[in-house]
Write a structure and sequence with these properties.
By secondary structure, the protein is mostly helical. Helices cover 74% and strands 0% of the residues. The chain has a domain at 1-85.
Length: 167
């Protein structure tokens, strides 16, 4: 790649050289259009998902009720501002956020393990709760196989509500 594109033009410039003048330009514009569309859709869906999590958070529900659109637009603007500042800055922000996320996961896992180790009865209570309703493992697996496929993620949006596909 470095030998074919020593000025940092990359693979798109190489592809445009393979096609005639206008075909090459249109091909490059099409590829850039797909990349931009993918980028915008990813940002929009990520911001909408994040705002849904904020709005449905029980600690923030009262303050953020009916403000999902405003939060989504603010998050998109914030992401846009970070990317306008520079790609390296965006990567830096992502690294910091991932570090915080992983640290919080470690806290949750260690706290859970500590709770299980110090309170030995929680495992036996959990096992008793599992077997109380169904009695054995095969009954639990059977019920799970019956109930799980009718979960929300299996039901297509175009399908009307039914017992196997609730609204």
């Amino acid at each position: 790649m470095a030998e074919e594109s020593p000025r940092g033009e990359g693979s798109i410039a190489m592809l445009s050289r393979l096609l005639s003048f206008w075909k090459g330009k249109l091909f490059v514009l099409t590829l850039l259009g797909f990349a931009a569309t993918d980028f915008l859709i990813t940002i929009t869906l990520s911001a909408a998902d994040a705002s849904t999590h904020l709005v449905e958070n029980p600690h923030l529900e009262a303050a953020l009720h009916d403000k999902q659109m405003i939060i989504t637009l603010a998050l998109i603007a914030l992401l846009g501002a970070v990317f306008l500042k520079g790609f390296l800055e965006a990567i830096g922000v992502a690294v910091v956020l991932v570090g915080i996320y992983l640290s919080l996961n470690v806290v949750v896992v260690v706290t859970g393990l500590w709770h299980v180790i110090t309170e030995g009865h929680v495992v036996t209570d959990w096992t008793a709760a599992l077997t109380t309703e169904h009695g054995n493992v095969f009954a639990m697996v059977g019920v799970a196989l019956i109930v799980f496929p009718s979960s929300r993620w299996v039901c297509p949006a175009s399908r009307p509500a039914s017992p196997s596909c609730p609204t």
